[in-house]
């Protein structure tokens, strides 16, 4: 009798995991995604701690002060990554540049996701005339020549809003169209399910249905898209800053640091000035993309087994 009871306890089925728990386990098993996550966390922490670290790692912690006697010094024991053409410590500016590039990338991504999700969910849920109006407006935004409008709007808003936030706002306004289309397509498919019809039949408001029922079920798609957009926004900021249309020149960012490579003597004879930001930017973009691919695989419903 006792052995029968023991056998029954051993055969007791394990508690089934939710899709989110299964996705978490799959993501944690993805070595490339986990290594990339650790790298991004380290870069983020070093960037946040830049003012503190600069006091201990560099004899020139001021990122804006020009030091005539310390110009173009190669890497040595005093300046680990050398100094630039203005005598500023490259390592210090690299940390501070990470703060700006990551801030612009994260803020612009947040703005894009919020705008795209709002427009896409409303268009997909209501359909009809509302859908047509919102999607035609989305098409109009997507047809704007991005670089031209960034330059024009940046020029118009410069002085009215802080230069850094001008760039974030402009990038966000011009980049949400793709997210809106994606969310709309997911909402159109999801709203045909019985649980949505049941929620509507018992008198739930459209706002409540969208927020509490639709968006949680398309959240996985939005999360994956957000990681990929984050990488794109960092590239956009760096490219615009490199061309001189991004953050103000006095503000250090990885793109601003890369703009030093415009000068032939720096590009050919002083690689310590432009190579560190180029390397950290490349590794950051690759890491974010690897994280996005890991999330995409982990959140794929066909693989949640």
Automatic annotation (TrEMBL):
Domain of life, per lineage: Bacteria
**One term under GO cellular component:** plasma membrane
Q: What is its main location?
A: membrane
Q: GO annotations under biological process?
A: transmembrane transport
Q: Spell out the Gene3D superfamilies in the cross-references.
A: MetI-like
Q: How is it placed in the membrane, per its record?
A: Multi-pass membrane protein
Chain ranges of the ABC transmembrane type-1 domain? 98-292
Record-annotated membrane-spanning stretches = 32-54, 100-128, 140-158, 164-183, 222-245, 272-292
Q: Which named protein is this?
A: ABC transporter permease
Record organism: Planococcus halotolerans
